[in-house]
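Ops channel
N.P.: pipeline sanity check, posting one input/output pair.
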């Protein structure tokens, strides 16, 4: 499988990377004491309690409290992202460069600086444990207590700054793998680590499982790395629901950064489309501000000729989402393109308001209870051996169509006649699937229903019904949908007509309407009677089914619509994939797809290749393509999305008064005035003059991997012309209009369709949504046992004993001291961890055992041929005992001391006096190595 959306070249083998081997081991002592003050700092950090930074995991019982800051303003110049060019395999050089950036940023008033993914080491993608690249990533892995980390932490504290950067991170007890992590250092020097949840860098990188949220003065930030951000929307959705306003994205991405014109220079057009599509859709959908820092320049293990396998564009940005566009605060050229191929830091050029989005709030139809169940279903499949990875791989695909139309408000007869004409036209063009807009059967607008207040249609019979009811128009005109072919008693009259046309032509027809629940309208807590906002699907055999909108928008939520709860996915056996399996489609409506990606992700991971999406949105062409196109590029879902095109609501005169009304007898009367506008948005507004789209992957069209003209990796084949006044000049913009020019259709190319998201962890996401449901939905019963805090009790005794041993400077051999130091460092990192839960208790067990083994393995230095003397640990219980039961005394060490030993003794005395912890380990490593 090709690695999607990342630097996907396998790391080549070659000469030994600089900085590895024994010389690199020596550098682990560079954090030796420079002054007693430095030792005191390390000691304080090592045994401090939980950091002030707020950390929350999906399994933690800690949640944001009333005192949590969820919004704030970042003053201009205080947030920085760095286009960073690492020296591959040379942590010391990269650390020095980062420290310089930090000091310079401090001089400029920066309060948070973000470096890219793997900035500390350079980028690695490898699954070959024998390769130099693989070995470099694992051998150079850090802990939150390692010397390099502490040096950067001291710089962060000294400058009162947040410092965030990417690095491989050690896994206790696992010397063959590492995490691909982001370390976040707070202004008081405390270090939190986020482990990339879906790494695509090869088998050296072990997936993490813990979202990390940190409290800042500007609000809460969430950590995510590259592919986690671009291909795992569940993570940022979780963050947004927990109150995060700022997403931090260390990244190393170069997809489609390639020479497209043969001049020998890389072009950023394809990369920029991808990068913008992912970041902008996230920022806009979830209401997030994003700080994204990317690597720049050549990187990776060089071959014998000095050539490196990767070339990163840079392109670090700070942006914020909006409904009609995204605003960039850093990273753009004057022409609006992203700044690439240039090293350096960038800061926000204006004050930046950070706040929390609204679409991850339960009161806005966010349903973590549903999502937890859907993802659990997917997890069950994974755990039974299914891969949840699909590729359609066949040219056998339908021709699909969208009708750019709007309905006559409240007139089902007129709208059904209009749809039947488009179905006829579509059949004449060879169309197999046609999608109409949301609520096309009745119109979308809702208006005050009391008495005669909404009786303003041009249809006298409908006006009588509206005048006699206090229900909204959609409730009065709702029809039942589901039924077998020929069912004339259950299904509504107009549903039956559309179903007959679908059967006549062997076509799939999808259209929006208000659907009557089986038991009649549902009465909400305010006494308002409601029905479903549904998409009816008429099948080629004449039967009908429906999808009931789950995530409602605007007035429909309070006025007339009750939410559905069940996905709708079905097979289309007329078309087969490369393995002979039928094409599968899922259905959602408007906001379900524009703002709530969980449903379409469920469809895709369940094997759907096609998403059918009726909508009624005023979102512009950017909004439509960035939201719906992301499903195609990220999730492998081709999309047919049809939007209302034309006015909506009852007709108004130039004064904004209804043209039609009813008298006291219920008879319709007309003012006779000219129609000047319509009730939805009023006179002078055309809110639905936007696009319908048919989207699939680019599929090497024109012999190129993406559209060289635009950089796009998706193909709309000329659909979407409704958003352009020029391209829609021949179309008719009117309620109920039939115009063949309003029909857009195309044959689809589904070869690349299919869900192929790497390291998709459905169980983890189910647990994350379950945690949100527990927090936000009263009475929700969790699907999973309650996790508790990380149990660190096993670490206390071996850490204390290791501390004492490391204070005995010069007593033990260099190699055994080094082993103990590294084990101590890993254990101390877990001791100070504030983000893991009981689900990571096995790491604590491993670290404690590893530390005990290292203590047992200590060997006393010998100046003659005497045998090495093993040490003792709390786990080994190898202490010698005298015949009378007392512990045998140990003979004093009378061996001569070298200069290094004298230095070690001085360090030990300092450590003992100051109760040093991590600093003792670092100092011991320095003195041990210097004696070699």
């Amino acid at each position: 499988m090709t690695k999607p959306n990342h630097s996907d070249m396998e790391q080549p083998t070659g000469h030994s990377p600089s900085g590895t081997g024994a010389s690199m081991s020596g550098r682990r002592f560079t954090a030796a004491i420079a002054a007693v003050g430095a030792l005191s700092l390390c000691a304080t950090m090592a045994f401090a309690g939980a950091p002030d930074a707020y950390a929350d995991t999906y399994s933690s019982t800690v949640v944001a409290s009333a005192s949590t800051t969820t919004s704030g303003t970042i003053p201009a110049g205080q947030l920085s992202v760095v286009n960073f060019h690492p020296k591959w395999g040379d942590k010391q050089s990269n650390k020095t460069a980062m420290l310089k950036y930090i000091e310079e940023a401090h001089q400029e008033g920066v309060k948070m600086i973000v470096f890219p993914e793997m900035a500390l080491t350079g980028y690695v993608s490898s699954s070959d444990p024998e390769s130099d690249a693989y070995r470099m990533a694992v051998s150079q892995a850090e802990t939150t207590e390692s010397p390099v980390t502490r040096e950067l932490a001291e710089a962060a504290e000294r400058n009162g700054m947040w410092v965030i950067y990417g690095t491989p991170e050690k896994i206790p007890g696992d010397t063959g793998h590492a995490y691909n992590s982001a370390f976040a250092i707070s202004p008081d020097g405390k270090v939190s680590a986020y482990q990339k949840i879906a790494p695509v860098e090869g088998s050296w990188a072990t997936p993490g499982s813990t979202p990390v949220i940190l409290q800042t003065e500007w609000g809460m930030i969430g950590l995510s790395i590259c592919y986690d951000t671009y291909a795992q929307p569940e993570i940022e959705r979780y963050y947004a629901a927990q109150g995060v306003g700022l997403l931090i994205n260390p990244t190393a991405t170069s997809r489609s950064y390639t020479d497209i014109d043969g001049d020998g220079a890389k072009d950023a057009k394809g990369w920029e489309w991808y990068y913008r599509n992912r970041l902008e859709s996230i920022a806009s959908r979830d209401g997030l501000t994003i700080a994204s820092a990317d690597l720049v320049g050549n990187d990776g293990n060089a071959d014998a000729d000095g050539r490196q396998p990767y070339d990163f564009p840079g392109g670090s940005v700070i942006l914020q989402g909006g409904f009609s566009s995204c605003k960039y605060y850093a990273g753009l050229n004057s022409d609006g393109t992203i700044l690439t191929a240039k090293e350096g830091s960038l800061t926000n050029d204006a004050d930046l308001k950070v706040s929390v989005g609204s679409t991850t709030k339960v009161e806005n139809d966010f349903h973590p209870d549903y999502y937890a169940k859907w993802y659990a279903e997917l997890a069950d499949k994974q755990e039974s051996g299914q891969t949840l990875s699909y590729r359609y791989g066949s040219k056998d695909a339908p021709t699909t169509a969208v009708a750019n139309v709007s309905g006559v408000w409240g007139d089902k007869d007129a709208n059904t006649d209009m749809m039947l004409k488009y179905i006829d036209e579509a059949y004449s063009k060879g169309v197999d699937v046609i999608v109409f807009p949301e609520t096309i059967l009745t119109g979308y607008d809702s208006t005050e229903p009391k008495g005669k207040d909404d009786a303003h249609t041009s249809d006298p019979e409908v006006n009588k019904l509206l005048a006699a009811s206090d229900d909204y128009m959609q409730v009065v005109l709702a029809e039942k949908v589901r039924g077998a072919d020929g069912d004339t008693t259950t299904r509504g009259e107009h549903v039956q007509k559309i179903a007959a046309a679908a059967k006549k032509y062997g076509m799939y027809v999808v259209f929006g309407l208000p659907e009557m629940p089986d038991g009649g309208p549902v009465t909400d807590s305010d006494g308002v009677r409601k029905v479903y906002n549904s998409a009816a699907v008429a099948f080629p055999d004449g039967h009908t089914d429906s999808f009931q909108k789950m995530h409602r928008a605007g007035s429909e939520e309070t006025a007339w619509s009750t939410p559905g709860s069940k996905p709708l996915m079905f097979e289309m056996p007329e078309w087969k994939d490369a393995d002979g399996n039928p094409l599968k489609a899922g259905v959602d409506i408007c906001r379900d797809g524009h703002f709530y990606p969980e449903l379409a992700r469920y469809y895709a991971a369940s094997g759907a290749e096609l998403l059918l999406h009726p909508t009624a949105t005023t979102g512009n062409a950017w909004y439509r393509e960035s939201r719906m196109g992301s499903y195609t590029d990220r999730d492998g879902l081709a999309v047919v999305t049809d939007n209302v095109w034309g006015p909506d609501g009852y007709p108004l005169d130039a004064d904004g008064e209804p043209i039609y009304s009813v008298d006291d007898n219920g008879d319709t009367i007309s003012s006779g005035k000219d129609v000047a506008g319509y009730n939805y948005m009023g006179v002078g507004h055309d809110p639905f003059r936007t696009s319908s789209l048919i989207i699939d992957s680019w599929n090497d069209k024109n012999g190129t991997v993406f559209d060289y003209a635009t950089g796009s990796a998706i193909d709309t084949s000329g659909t979407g012309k409704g958003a352009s006044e020029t391209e829609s000049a021949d179309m008719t913009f009117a309620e109920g209009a039939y115009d063949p020019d309003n029909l857009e259709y195309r044959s689809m190319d589904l070869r690349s369709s299919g869900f192929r998201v790497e390291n998709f962890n459905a169980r983890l996401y189910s647990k994350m949504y379950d945690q949100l449901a527990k927090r936000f939905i009263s009475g929700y019963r969790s699907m999973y046992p309650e996790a508790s805090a990380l149990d660190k009790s096993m670490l206390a005794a071996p850490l204390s004993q290791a501390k004492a041993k490391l204070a005995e400077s010069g007593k033990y051999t260099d190699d055994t001291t080094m082993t103990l130091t590294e084990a101590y460092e890993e254990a101390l990192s877990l001791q100070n961890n504030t983000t893991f839960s009981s689900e990571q208790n096995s790491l604590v067990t491993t670290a404690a055992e590893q530390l005990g083994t290292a203590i047992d393995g200590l060997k006393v230095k010998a100046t003659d041929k005497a045998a090495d003397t093993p040490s003792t640990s709390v786990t080994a219980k190898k202490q010698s005992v005298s015949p009378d039961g007392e512990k045998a005394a140990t003979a004093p060490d009378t061996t001569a001391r070298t200069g290094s030993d004298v230095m070690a003794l001085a360090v030990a005395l300092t450590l003992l006096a100051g109760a040093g912890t991590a600093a003792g380990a670092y100092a011991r490593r320095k003195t041990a190595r210097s004696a070699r």
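N.P.: looks fine end to end. Confidence is low (pLDDT under 50) at residues 1-66, 864-869, 871-932.
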